[in-house]
Amino acid sequence: MTDELNAIRLMDITKSFGDVLANHNISLDVRYGEILALLGENGSGKTTLMNILSGIYYPDSGHIIVGGEEVSIHSPKDAHDLGIGMIHQHFKLVDVLTATENIVLGLKGDARLNRKDLNETIGKLSAKYGFEIDPAKKIYNMSVSEKQTVEIIKLLYRGAEILILDEPTAVLTPQESEKLFKVLRNMRNDGKAIVIITHKLNEVLAVSDRVSILRKGCSVGTVITGDTNRQELTELMVGRAVSLEIERPDPPAIKDAFLKVIDLTCVDSDGHTVLDNISFTLNRGEILGVAGIAGSGQRELCEAITGLYPIKGGAILCRGETPSGSFHENIVGKTPTEIIKKGVAMAFVPEDRLGMGLVASMDMVDNMMLKSYKNGKGPFTDRSTPKKMAEHMIKALDIVTPGVFTPISLLSGGNVQKVLLGREIASSPSVLLVAYPVRGLDINSSYTIYDLLNEQKKKNVAILYIGEDLDVLLELCDRIMVLCGGKVSGIVDAKKTSKDKLGLMMVHADSEKDGETA
Amino acid sequence: MDVIVNLFCAAVLAGTPLLFGTLGEILTEKSGNLNLGVEGMMFMGAISGLAGALFYENLFSVPGGIPAAVLAVVFSFLFGMLGALIYSFLTVTLRANQNVTGLALTIFGTGFGNFFGDVIGGRSASGYAAVGAATKAVFQNIRIPYLSDIPYLGKLLFSYNFLVYLGIAVAVTMAVFLNKTRTGLNLRAVGEDPAAADAAGINVTKYKYFATCIGGGICGIGGMYISMVICSGVWVNNCVSGMGWIAVALVIFATWSPSRALLGSLVFGGLSIMRMYIPLGIPSQIYDIFPYLATVIVLIATGIRQSREHAIPKSTGVNYFREER
Fold this sequence. Notes:
The complex is a heterodimer of chains A (about 525) and B (about 325). With about 525 residues, chain A is an alpha/beta fold. Helix content of chain A is about 35%, strand content about 25%. Chain A has helices at about 45-55, 75-80, 100-105, 115-130, 145-155, 175-190, 200-205, 230-240, 300-305, 335-340, 355, 365-370, 385-395, 415-425, 445-460, 470-475, 500-505, 510-515; strands at about 5-15, 20-30, 35-40, 60-65, 70, 85, 160-165, 195-200, 210-215, 220-225, 255-265, 275-285, 285-290, 315-320, 325-330, 345-350, 430-435, 460-465, 480-485, 485-495. In chain A, the strands form 4 sheets. A 6-stranded mixed β-sheet of chain A has the order 6-7-8-3-9-10, with helices on both faces. The longest helix of chain A has 16 residues, at about 175-190. By secondary structure, chain B is an all-alpha fold. In chain B, α1 runs antiparallel to α10 (about 205-230), α3 (about 65-95) packs antiparallel against α10 (about 205-230) and α7 (about 160-180) crosses α8. The chains are: A alpha/beta (about 525), B mainly alpha (about 325). The interface of A and B includes residues 91, 96 and 270 of A.
């Protein structure tokens, strides 16, 4: 391979943030007419490396060679001048502007903005690559996949030859992802160099030509996609052999309904219906997965059940235990404290760990006390029990922390999640709601979390699991409920369904029945 | 009929300093900077405009005239800019808190105006700072032959001082700039989402500095209007007296649109001089409440109406740092 075919050559790139070494002596080649996958776990430095290329960060040391010449990229503009364009995980689009306005933003041209001509040019360009967008549509009216399209057109319009996509499928349905891959292949065949950053092995195998793997800020090798497999990639990524199987203990044969949600309807402050006649039953000893595109009502569902979100209609019947026997009680309209007092042991692991779940600036002991400070008599709180609990938890869950008095904010994502989940489990709940518990976690931590959930399942706890990775949902859950635009588009047996079926359900909430387009 | 015409004219005259303040702050906020120092920059413009005219008069020992007035405009603009430059340096370069910096600028500007007002007054023979008659005359209402004589219309349209027309011109220019030019589009992007603007190759720092400083200059002219027109070229301590704050509220009333700022400043100008034109038989203190009452109502109304098009530029109040994570 000669240097001319190399679009970019990175040599010995190092970048640190404070004490954290995000990239350590990384070398990498990107070639024209090829899709390169940059694979690594969260926190392995993939995004940092690509941000260096696109001018967001400046490396501490190392060389960047573009087109055979050494360059230094000080700003996104420099990157753009070199033909490098990046699509960030969080789109860099201005909401109140139209697609066209976003695309021409910051470019030179006539002082006067001729919207009509520009709309036409951009319409033609998108037609050429087979995109369907309305150039005059405002970004805030667009779906996630439309926004991504705008980002891609923006780069093409600017003449980018090297495209970097950061976790492009994180927000897409399987069908939308497939469409994106098709476009990427077209662009590759057009001679462009494409880098996709991902931690999903399936995507790597599906779309890339070569894979470069990063681990803990270091480059651990580059392989040809055709010559490798899932297991090998995982080992390179994690650093040792990992079993990719998720255990799934069988749920009890006799269904014991713990939580019955009937026609639950919620309306947000703007008057939009966020949950529309949701009905389902959550049994003891099972994991009910919830799938759906982000923002389909998952958050609202959790918060409605825990008494944090106002409910407009419907009922949530929850089983309570009293010495005289068990009963089902409607918990709609009750505050979380009242629900707990009714004898319903409910634990909630919110998606926003450090916002809703834990207080970042407090230490483990204080965070434990958030649940127990009301117990006991007298004006003084008991700190010794939570301290013991925290110490026990560090041992039991293998939490890496300097000590129980270290602020939670200094812990890594996986350890923070363990603290939160550990605290909730410690209250021996009978129902456990978890929202995106493995978001941002590396593979090891993720598997620890799955094991913890399965352990609870075996203890006959009813678990509602809100997830985003369909592969995990299919392997971990017993049943999967699919939400689409606040409606249930179906509840299916996880063993008897497929990713494609779930993907279709995620975008079509009984659209035929209502005659609506989802 | 005459009452309405007179009220309208008086409202335009009283609303013009508010218009300048509002326009300056709109431009500033479009870049994502919430500069609460409008009051301070108006004070700086008020004293420096007056000082500029006096400087010319003393230098040539003449009673002033058009060059003195031009100098007043230039000086007030430059000193308004100076205030905004301090603000920009602190918030954009040093990333200081915008609210605190703005409040500090207000306090600084007020002191700056009153201090130099006293100094200049103390040095003059009369004991107070006042411009010459010829300069004063330039700031008087104009008379255009024939046009000003048209019944009603002449008075409504062609009977104001030149600053009123300058204000309208600035508003129209700004509306065209923001909506029809590439630079205007870039500026809006900076205020909405600096990270997106940065990724698109826009120099965020440059845009923030320019918009904030020019905005400050426009506020400064508004202050000069107060000392030269409302106070007839005589320095009065604390002459800006809260108009800068009303301008900040007017930005919300105008929903960040320069053309609606014209309407807003007219309404607020009218409310502030109403007691002299519409006798309602209520104590004058109640009249004084009206502009502030209207501000409160506007804030409530805009709080209820959540429109994405007419909302505050999203990044306003938040400093941008590219490498933040």
